[in-house]
Amino acid sequence: MFDVSKIREDFPILKRKINGKPLIYFDNTATSQKPIQVIEAIKEFYEKYNANIHRGIHTLSQEASEAYELAHEKVAKFINASSWQEIVFVRNTTEAINLVAYSWAYNKLSKGDEIIVTIMEHHSNFVPWLVLSKKVGVKLKIIDILDDGTLNLDDFHEKISKKTKLVAITHISNVLGTINPVEEIVKVSHDFGAYVLIDGAQSVPHLKIDVKKIDCDFLGFSAHKMLGPTGIGALYAKEEILKEMDPFLFGGDMIRDVWVDRAEWNELPWKFEA
């Protein structure tokens, strides 16, 4: 059975009283509260093995590095990615989408190409493509919704074409609650040679996600919406795509070697985790 009282015991913040009454919190689409297990895991890191990852041979650095790499493996397993090297840690879903925009789209797309989004997109999955269209000359096509809040699939089928290079779509709308048929959208998009990016900010916390089954090219999501810490999220991308992409940020840990006139990037996924 779903024992609400027992689950509430895992969340220290729910012991608070506001206006003399126990806190009831429903704003999970914005951010979820943190269970004691997560709070204790963060506390344990700072108390026992706080150190820079991949930067030292001393015990603390080795332990921190192992924990960090294991986290990639756990996330990969959670969404059924082929490899932990397909998991790039970012700050949140917004950064995941921007990484794809700057590292992939700006290098791959040109004037005359088309990107399809929907009218139900979060700003994080709309504004990056709007800015790209202004700077590069890519045409932005917007799929409408029906009166019941579901996606107008007829509109999607009419607007997709061989010029479509990317379809960027939310899996679950944070406003409408609509669950979009992403598997169908991915299949149609791939038939036209287009890549697909899925905003999974709302779906990864609530649905069992299998990126192999969905066959999406990119998927972004945030830990803070799924009981995890603020300031960490993930971008999933197929390994062959990540290998072709340039780094998004430059600096520490994303380099393999540096000379005064050139640099070599680290292996996946570190080359995207400056």
Walk me through what this model shows.
By secondary structure, the chain is α/β, with parallel strands linked by helices. It has a domain at 84-239: 3-Layer(aba) Sandwich (Aspartate Aminotransferase, domain 2), CATH 3.40.640. Helices cover 34% and strands 17% of the residues. The strands form 3 sheets. Strands 3-9-8-7-6-4-5 form a 7-stranded mixed beta sheet, sandwiched between helices. The chain has a two-stranded antiparallel ribbon with strand order 1-2. A hairpin with a 4-residue loop joins strand 10 (255-258) and strand 11. Helix 4 (93-108) runs parallel beside helix 5 (127-136). It starts with a helix and ends in a 9-residue tail after the last strand. The model has no long low-confidence stretch (mean pLDDT 96).
Question: How do you describe this structure in short?
Answer:
With 274 residues, this protein is an alpha/beta fold.
Shape field: flat
Major sheet size, sense and barrel closure:
7 strands, mixed
CATH homologous superfamily (4th level) name of the domain at 84-239? Type I PLP-dependent aspartate aminotransferase-like (Major domain)
For the record, the CATH class of the domain at 84-239 is Alpha Beta
- Architecture (CATH level 2) name of the domain at 84-239: 3-Layer(aba) Sandwich
Oligomer: single chain
Q: What is the number of strand segments?
A: 11
Low-confidence stretches: none
Helix content: 25-40%
The proportion of residues in beta strands is 15-25%
SS summary, helix count: 9
The chain-level mean pLDDT equals 96
Distance separating the two termini: 44 Å
Class by helix and strand content?
alpha/beta
